[in-house]
Amino acid sequence: MATTARPAIRVLPEPPGLPEPLPEPAAADLRLETVFGALSGPLRLEIVRRLLLEREEFDHPCGWFGFDRPKSSLTHHFKALREAGVLRQRQYGLERRSEVRIDDLNARFPGLIDLVAGWEPDAS
């Protein structure tokens, strides 16, 4: 029986002096149906997956992803992920940067992060 290797999730140390996070639900208040709702679209899944597997810094602005979408559309998707408790966002001047709430999601929903990291977009 063959097993597939799990993708390596990139965990980077929190740098000192970070701005306070934008409002988000407490870890104890995360609800699976809300998280699933936020992850229900392929673009949002791709955002989270790339932050888990490809991040180069502790957190990233939406421009890092290189999506060819209007800024207002991307803002909506990032806000939905933050309000569901999937992402943590911080304001750096005019820029918002995002990271996945790995520890909180692993504590509430063991295995979910590995599922998202292992998801691959449909090539069709």
TrEMBL record:
Residues spanning the signal sequence: none
Stretches for region Disordered: 1-23
HTH arsR-type domain mapped to chain residues: 34-114
Compositionally biased spans, kind Pro residues: 13-23
Protein name: Helix-turn-helix transcriptional regulator
Organism: Actinomadura violacea
